[in-house]
Specification:
By secondary structure, the protein is α/β, with parallel strands linked by helices. It is built from 4 helices and 3 strands; from the N terminus they run ααβαββα. Helix 3 (50-58) links the parallel strand 1 (38-41) and strand 2.
Amino acid sequence: MKDAARKQGVELLLGNSGGTQDKEISLLDTYTTQQVDAIMVAPLSIKASIPALQRAHDAGIKIITFDSKIDADFPESSIRSDQVALGAPTGKEAARYIREKLGG
């Protein structure tokens, strides 16, 4: 994301909720107050993340979710990846390494 933002001349603000709903809400409210153009978020909860994201949306901020979704229809887009397909090559390589280098 950093490289893509730099290439497009877009300011990218990064935040991490540390897996806590309170921190996620605080970050979303901060970005809403700052009137950012868009928020891209992997929401922690299908339901509990909605109010803060709704406030941002109501303030005219585009919402994009990734890796997880919310139970609402206002996000501009929801990007999901196939986690099994992403992890399969790593698992196969780990199995090969364990067989060949660690004796099974």
